[in-house]
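Problem statement: downstream parser choked on a complex file, so we are re-checking the raw output for the alpha-D-glucopyranose run. The parser issue turned out to be on our end (a line-ending mismatch), but while we're here, posting the original submission so the record is complete.
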Amino acid sequence: MKKYQGLSILIVSLFISTVSAQRKPISARVDSLMKLMTLEEKIGQINQYSGREATGPVTRKQTYQLNDIRSGKVGSMLNVHGVKNTREVQAAALQSRLKIPLLFGMDIIHGYKTIFPIPLAEAASWDLDAIRLSAHIAAREAAAAGLHWTFAPMVDIGRDPRWGRVMEGAGEDVFLGSAIAKARVYGFQGDRLGGTDAVMACAKHFAAYGAVAAGRDYNDVDMSERLLWDTYLPPFKAAADAGVATFMNSFSTLNGIPATGNSDLQRHILKGKWNYKGFVVSDWGSIGEMVEWGYASDSSDAALKAITAGCDMDMQSEAYKRHLARLIKEGKADVKLLDDAVRRVLYKKFELGLFDDPYRFCNESREQETLSNPQHKLIARDIARKSIVLLKNEEKVLPVSAKVQNIAVIGPLVKSKRDLEGSWIPRSDTSLVVSLFEGIKGKIAPGSNLMYAKGCSIADTSQADFQEAINLAKQADVIIMALGESYSMSGEAKSRTDIHIPGQQEALFEAIEATGKPVVVVLMAGRPLIFNKVARKASAIVYAWWLGAEAGNAIAGVLFGDYNPSGKLPVTFPRSIGQIPISYTQYNTGKPVKSPDDIKYKSAYIDSPNSPQYAFGHGLSYTKFSYSGLKLSKSSISANETSELSFTLTNTGEIAGEEVAQLYLQDPVASVVRPLKELKDFRKVSLKPGESKVVRFTITKDYLSFFNRHLEWVAEPGNFKLMIGAASDDIKLETALTLVQ
Ligand code: GLC
């Protein structure tokens, strides 16, 4: 009997100690663990290796280091996914002395199993709820597959479409980019970390990576502090305010110092001014790359500069693993820097519940059930169609009647599947992708005659198949062409000096258009392309980005009118490469162009208008909207007052639709020159035919504020112009507001 009493006392005391340990604040649990750790074990926590599916240049024969994991020399893995794999590798970590579980991270940029539209496409939806849901589904699938962490959202402002990574972000605008950054962080992380249907998010690439010189990836970034604060930092601050768990360094420099070794960014701004408590992971090998940059003399110097500057985890360069212990023992690196980094990493592991159950994300039945959830593709289809932008629709060529008799679909992207997934997907599965051809086939009446010709390839020079396509076009009542980039033409390390539609595709379009029949062009790409001939001669143009697995159904739904397109461009489309970098936030200058006929001594090009091919915020609908009755509750306010701006939006057409009403502001006189307009808010409004709604914005001091030359966030007394637009170049209403002292 005594034996059993002893056993039950032991079990109860074990239970109490476990529960009390779990009830201790996480910071106390971190401190207790840190006290047990050796220097090597601490360094292990900030060392991250990639699994076999490398997403960067494998610097040396980086085998799958299970031995290092078993000896506690690795704190995190990237590119290991699937419950079976993560369970196996986690088991290795639990053989280490202190049994500290690993973090598993991966680039879940626009979906894990269900591939969603690329982020730039989703930004064109201006639908924050849909964007958040897209990130939530991606997180739910990734977490079910054993992942704890996604290296997303990429929140880099992108104003240079030569840069291939513009596809990963939310476009050119500070307000829209910041709003989307928050939506994606909330989508990935849920209301709080620790749920097994959510993952840690990662705001990247810190910072200003989108401004690389000449649009060439990994290049230098040189800009004023004011431009950095006014334009490139706000989406990162929005992500931090939304509680993003981690940040990732950029590969680029900022004003001569690599971001990975930049303490202004990581210590002064992020962990100082913003009081950020998460951790910063380097980009793939970016610590080691400071040697190539000429900022570090060798890998050891790079490790010292990175840990000093605030880079908490080393992705794949092994600089911390190889040098940090010696640097600390030699007194060159302060162990407090290491302790701070390790504490930040361990805190997240506790938050995720990994110490309570290291396998809590490794549930095979949840993986199977989640990854086969049929709802996910319907959600993907919904945001895909909301991301489509109708650029042009002359003589109402669109929508096409499903009863059309003879329809010709022509172009290299008509039957493509892999391209529709875009770049940055964990693994391609084209069996899940609906091509445009399949989407159209599913829409037209059974008796219709659907004719297909590829016409040419995406990028080669041959026109050999033009005639076959022309012959089909001559027989057709409706011609739909699908042109654009291949999936491998945008994304990381995909900068292009020429962003015209590649190959012979525009020549093919001109040959088809020469038949004299109206042509509908669907463009698919990861960035703005230049297509002036198509823009001039096509009867209708639909920009369909790369819309993911449900692309074909979404595009066909728009072409045949099941869904009235509502997308608006999140990025400016230039007429020529010569206009780049380009965005809608232009300045009046001292010599503004007042008339296109008078550009003598004006801020203008002699060979092109200043205006883009398509402006930020542009997007048409199959219906029409009217804007009227603009009111301001107060025409002047003091700094702590607000004024309510309202107007009436009416659907004056015959079909239901959604309009993105955009609020722009100009500060015409300020202590630093301000752009002619800046987006300050927007509403996406659904309206039935004939329906009107009053749209309201509450104007606060914040709407009027900017970073001045001293980097202070200020609203200066004076007059402001408030504009309501259907696009940045389509202002419908405007009024004036005065900020009094
Ligand atoms: C890549 C990318 C980064 C990504 C990381 C891990 O080089 O720059 O965005 O998260 O490596 O794949």
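For whoever reads this later: Residues 55-56, 78, 107, 151, 204, 283-284, 492 surround alpha-D-glucopyranose (CB under 6 Å).
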